[in-house]
């Protein structure tokens, strides 16, 4: 019996068809980033990927076979309980953020308002400006410092990270409790600091962290293991729960439980399962209900339950007519164009930041600068505007600024700038015709567009949903006001609020390019099903127009980090590629009974950072007989599951599935494991721990077919075999993500540089 | 080279673990029904199954490789166009049904009303009764005759059939134009005939037929081929479009486009694809928009667009409070119990019908009898009721019956019985407190429950949604009225309409047991997102309670026909079963170069009605090298693609993919193909036509793993190989559907009896 691992190579590789491929990509899955983009620490190097395919080894099968019908029932019930808990906690976190932000912003605006009122008559408004700038910068400084110093991954909205996680890329530290704490505090600071940001996007990330924490029954940050839900400590189950958490987050943010479910499914669940979807829906519903209940109790409106989400668009009672549909499509196109411009500017800005703004102090200073500029610009806009409106009795404005207006009037520009963005959006949707004049709306759109674009990508926790809605609502309202009011048809477009809504949809769609889920989220947020059709048309147009120029904002940020993100389908024209061309080869294989030293050497070899190893039968012609993961080998080595030469094999059977679960998901690095020289000479019997039935494909399988198998089953490794079941290569995520559809047909990305 | 096909068998089969299995189940996929259930002709013998996995043979790959980037774009655009057309046609059909039913029912009710008014004072109401009975029976007779004589598969709601189709079971004639015509006429007759049925369920079937017709660009019923969309003539594409059609049907029926998408996904799409879902959503939206537009124009309300669906629940403005949630859960439990009772009664009735009512004339007579009884019972209820209410000025009642009431009053019982069911549902939801007295509601619930139960399963086209809603609305309203009105909490339950809605949801959920999609459908139909949470709770409780007793109505009907329906997951406790135990073995294999006579003999052998044949390489040790389908072999035989002994193989290459598409989906039977004795000695080269990369699993693969692969990829055949890639068996749908979770753990069904 040979003691060294086999290198199985297939010699007939057709190098013409894969000219661009470097010969160094042999079987490693580690992704290194381009030297040009070292700064995006929020999505720093991914050590590995998630495995949605259970390793059905002997231990696993024995456990499953031991489990009774009742046992499975109990598991199912605990899944439901976990989803309920995810919903409750996510809802509570949303409440906490909402209440604290309202309180802090209220204090801030009251102080500044009092100051402005004091100085309006006597002169010296520059002191008010200074006060505003200082207050904003202070909030943002706190927010930026905690993010940069404690947990850089909590920066931004977290949606790209969650997209990656649900796609199967393991983003380090993304679902830790510490990240959640930093995220929540960061969001509060940045929203209270008056940045052009929203608190809705981060809810999705928060929900995902809650889900990961609750479902695993332990926390690394707290170093506490509650010894519950141990069955769920594997990628398959964890990812299902994280989907539920993300959905609960969307649901709490927008009061959109169905939208949340669709978001999770669009982004994550490759394998649609009825029970899973139903559980995700349950988590979403509980989340919005908890938020609703707590906020209602907080506002002393127990019997009403009228706050299903953090942002509430208010009630739209408007009907639309057939004649307006071309107008809506037109608005969708504008949204697509503006969204593409936004994304392009933000892309350049991100490149700039990656090159020059990567030290924490610089990042904090940039954030503070943006806060100061935002306050100054807002102040200037309010100061220079002379759009005075009579103050209404119903006190719909929270902080009406009189400034230079006559008594009994207030400054209309201030209702959009001197307010939390959520309130501004609602004002733009619902204030009656004539509340804002054209210049106010135009200037507001322009300034907010650039401010929001500058803000996204700062090292603060914040989302882009609300700023997008705000920009869109402003130009949408402008569009509505500009329409001729007296035409041959009944002036049903008397109310510009409808156009504000469509503009908001168009702008948001143009920036993030989400489709079905966004339609449903917006419909649920308006609470009016009739708007479904126009919103769909607007989003579709915005996506088509926007996609012509540049990708969506999240995809840009994911791509900038060369993450091997798998799309839904293989590129259309990739049928001429086969598994033989895309696979990594040669691949390291182990024997069923392998020498410890050999395994140690291979795992320690940093040049070939493999994660999955086919296991072959030495005796009968090197046929494939299983697949073993690096993580499993490490646990085996750590527990020294060795067969000594003299002893029988029976000695070995002592490791339980529990040992693997305890080590999950942070398996120790190979360097931390010490093996003596004597032990190196021992053997390891892998047959009990390897997955004996890995999925395989023949070499001639076309890329779309491989892709479909990979995506439908959420695989991490797919073994390529020849016609007598010998291993010839291994297809990994990176091999598939490399091919994408460019402007000129199929292109090959360079994801890894060894 | 051997000329006979190989029988590869695996001798070590573990017979202990599969004691119940008959030795006759060797590789055949044909499903024969139990002798006890011969009558359910609507779902008669299925010749075969759908294949969601493309056969990527050389012809296919060559075509795909020839196609340019632009070509794929065009295909994608035509997919969108088809979905748009599906939406438009489905919407138009819904309009047609709606308008014709309203007209016919209007005429009927006017005639009967006039007659009743004429005879109320002078006596002789028995003549009115007779008139009503005759009118109803006449309508129903026409409906029953066209269904029984022309297309029995058009009977019922069509939802079980569409569920089967989307699950992958090819139900014969289910998506033909003729079926659609019969369905539409049948629905009109049965609704106009006053049966306790709805026109909503059949819309799902109609949408599916439209989708199949439009996407294939031809009609068998019309014998017309438009020579368009030929690329889509295969199972994969067709099933995607049928999903879109079913969604469009739901959307038109309930004005619920998102609900439609979720219905399709819950029932069909095993592999979630973003673009597909977005297209399905597009079809749904277009469908509800078309309906809305046409009905608005028809009712001269062009600018309003206020009829998104066939049934419209009207606007609910009510809030619910926390204290009501236990009440809702209670209602859910009642709904579950009543639903289970309904299903149980209908199950017994169906068994009775299968045994004794299977001749067309009996079926027509039964339908007429039900119509007569329905009219009589309704008349009796109206006649005996003395629930008089003052006639309102706003004329909300279409046909107010005065009967024995004082002038200016009308009979309240008549608003529920003397009306189309859709109007009755709306009345129950929205009429103010005090419209109905307790006895009216109680009697109505009781009679309608039994009438609806008797009606479902008749040989008429009709749905069960509306009757369920009606029963539920009646007892829900009763529940609401019975609640103490003055309690320690604010009497927010003053309006019983809310309880009617919850009762309707509970009853419908208790009968059909749909979950996520039904919640969304109901939320969209009410147009009020706030009700999402209570409706979800109600449906969940109804499902849990109902499932304890008996399955859902559609599942009962599917099961009664022993259809090999694949659920979402393998039974939980099936890990101890492996591919070796579930597979069919021995399996017929062909050589790559096989004798025509051998192939003819195997295909003609009616005892072993195989549909997929592994192809093996004779030379190098009988390894698997491909999979060929019966349908492909038949096309090859028909076109006589033979290699004569003397000639070279090049002679053969003349068959195009087009030849396969033209034959799709109704491949000729083997008996229609004549092969001369000389030709029998020729050879056929299968290598170009077989799928060279079929999915395979090793023998030790556990059942859940096999199931997951099968379901995720929508397979029809899965080859089981040994460790040197030799064929040992074939797993088909029937092998997997056999195992299910019973009360006492894993049970094995007897689906096939050879």
Radius of gyration of chain A: 28 Å
How many distinct folded domains of chain A?
3
Mean pLDDT of chain A: 82
> Assembly state here?
homodimer
Count the helices of chain A. How many? 26
Spatial separation of the terminal alpha carbons of chain A: 34 Å
Mind telling me the CATH superfamily name of the largest domain in chain A?
Answer: CBS-domain
Sheet with most strands: strand arrangement of chain A: 1-8-10-11
CATH topology of the largest domain in chain A: CBS-domain
Q: Give the overall shape of chain A.
A: elongated
- The helix content of chain A, as a percent range, equals 40-55%
Q: Main β-sheet of chain A: number of strands, strand sense, barrel status? A: 4 strands, mixed
CATH class placement of the largest domain in chain A: Alpha Beta
Write the layout of secondary structure elements.
Two copies of one chain form a homodimer.
Chain A: E1 6-8, E2 48-49, H1 58-66, H2 69-122, H3 125-150, H4 159-167, E3 169-170, H5 177-192, H6 201-216, E4 218-219, E5 224-225, H7 235-254, H8 257-267, H9 274-298, H10 325-356, H11 360-384, E6 388-390, E7 409-411, H12 412-417, H13 421-430, H14 438-455, H15 465-482, H16 497-512, H17 516-526, H18 532-549, H19 553-560, H20 579-582, E8 587-591, E9 593-595, H21 596-604, E10 612-616, E11 624-629, H22 630-638, H23 657-663, H24 677-680, E12 683-685, E13 696-698, H25 703-713, E14 717-721, E15 727-732, H26 733-737, E16 739-742, E17 745-748
Parallel strand pairs in A: 8-10, 13-14
Antiparallel strand pairs in A: 1-8, 2-3, 4-5, 6-7, 9-12, 10-11, 14-15, 16-17
Helix pairs in contact in A: 2-3, 2-5, 2-6, 2-7, 2-9, 3-5, 3-11, 4-19, 5-6, 6-7, 7-8, 7-9, 8-9, 8-17, 10-14, 10-16, 10-18, 10-19, 11-14, 13-15, 14-15, 15-16, 16-18, 17-18
